[in-house]
Fold:
Amino acid sequence: EEGLKGRGDGAQESCTASMKLSLSLRFPPANPPIAAIAAAGLAALEKPTGSTVLVRPDGKAKESVLVLTSPTQGSLVVKGAEAIERCVSRFAPGVYGSGDGEDPMVGCQIERMVVFAQELSQMDEKAKMAQFSVLNDHLACRSTLCGYDLTLADCKVWAALLADAGCVKRLSKGSGVIHLKRWWDYVSSCSAFAQAKRALEASQRKKPAPKKGGSFDIPLEGAEMGKVVTRFPPEPSGYLHIGHAKAALLNDYFARTWKGKCLLRFDDTNPEKESQEFVDNIMSDLKTLGIKHTPPTTTSDHFGVIAEKAEEMIKKGFAYVDDTPVELMREQRMNGIESASRKMSIDEHLRRWGEMKKGSEYGLKCVLRAKISMTHVNKCMRDPAMYRCKIQTHHKTGDKYKVYPTYDFACPIVDSIEGVTHALRTVEYKDRDQQYNWFIEKLGIRPVHIWSYSRLNMRYTVLSKRKLKAFVQEGTVEGWNDPRFPTVQGVIRRGLRVDALREFILEVGASVNDNMMSWDKVWAINKKKIDPVAHRFLAITRDSKVMMTITNFTEPAPVSAAGATTMDVQLHPKNKGIGMKKTAIGDKIWLEAEDASLFTEGEEVTLMRWGNCRITKITKDSEGKITELKGALNLMGDVKKTKYKVTWIADAADGSDAKRQPVSVTCVEFDHLITKPKLEDGDDYKNFVTGCSRFETHVQGEPALRNVRPGQLIQLERRGYFRCDKALEPGTDGTIVLFNIPTGKKKSMSSVGSKVAMKR
Structure:
């Protein structure tokens, strides 16, 4: 007051203004500074008149930041939890024990307790609980930790305990620490601490899982509902593989989304590689994938028009016929050197074009090239080829033509003619997009929107049709539908469901980001599809089995089987609606030798889909190998209490009933065709071919397997999922062939091992 004398009202107003501070604490929601927020809550209750306190989470904040602002002294920015706690406490002195009339000893006690709280926060749950008795004794005659009001000490200790779920649980019960529990309940109920508690709960709350993979929900430039036309243009030089499936599904998706149509056009511009076999199988694969497309067309349908456009380009001076040898031409393109043919007259180029169309000896040496620029920074624009001369019978047009357009020249013309509005191309064509648009511009034809997406690549997989064709021709695989192949027919024959393939493609999405995907992802999606519906069957290894005699087999049910020969079992243990099967039973059953080696006499084991059985005797030969078991059924036993759940089949050695005879089954597993996850440029794939990628295991299955049909997806209990590649004809004997279906897991389903896993 003495200092204000003579200064007038202005000085007094200035002093009052200096007291009007504002405090703003922002923090990242995932990492809230609990003690600082609690201290700010106390400060808000004691703030000077006219001051403000704002505490809020900030999704953009990377760390906690405190801003103190004074009308006369500007702003102060403080970072770091401990520094913020002290500054917040200084804002309202009572929180730090330094308010008017406070005992200086209280401030010292707060300092000591703050240090204790920092040590407490570093302790594990067990060590923290060991300090409960210390805190309980300290609070025996106190309501707060220091002094008579809540302070920073209470904030710090409360925050240290709140961060540990085990401590909170014990404090809620309060056994043995009644004083500490009283303090805990009091502090937790105070409104000043409410925001801190909410902030912690929000940080611990499970966030919704982000949408996996990519998305096809990407806008198309210039798209109009009902007018979008896409096209899928496969080259009929091989079977469709999983990469083509992505392209087909993508075009189909956008056509359906925009209520337009998807064209199917075979790009048959290279007669050396194409055949009707490939056309037929591509049509079949698209039907399998559920692609809705218009009646198929071919680029060859437009050969006449394309040739006219080529001649038009020559006459306009936008194209020329070059007879430069191939190797020299490549060298010139690389170095930006013009061909000597480039400056010749239009008449000369038309003459040469005539030689090409006749397929003459000279014409075979020539190439029709676009006249763009040999120094263009984009080398795809350095006078690319438009037509080549080939004496080759075309699978559709026969010997009518001796010249064939390149894909790059034919594609924009046919896209424009057929009404395509959006040409979807993989990013590997990105450098050629300029070329595509250049042809459209020079020919004066309707433009087409180009939309790029990433090519699908799979680990340990070759997707080059040239290399896949070599695998077929060299006999490395059975054919284009080999289960080791990434072709649509191959993966479906392996056991991949079409809906799982579609879901995988949709998860990959339509972005331009590179996709190097793992097959594990594909098979994990597939497992979710087949597990709820796959019929379950029992089988044991043919050459590694042990017989067990059930000594009480004829005793009455429900403990035993009362001598029955069959029992009804659900085809799926969790889905009775799928149906039932007849499972053969008897007093002699076969078990896996590997399982039998784990048993001990007197132990109770579970015979899967039947019930418990107590092992009463184990017989071994001189080498310690188990030769026979004896057991007693206990079908009322608790299957949850047994250590071993084992597969088995009934013996039918007497051959009295054909329906009880086990079925011979060959289980086939497959490994990757190549040993390197990703082939690099320059790698010769032949150096990475897997030596042996097919493995067979011979098993005996229960008689109900006779009803399995080709293509059916089943599960052999404890062995895995399988697709039936070869079934038994009704009333005949023979061997069923089952292809193992991967599940996306590295570990096999049980101790009945995987040969591929053992090899790896």
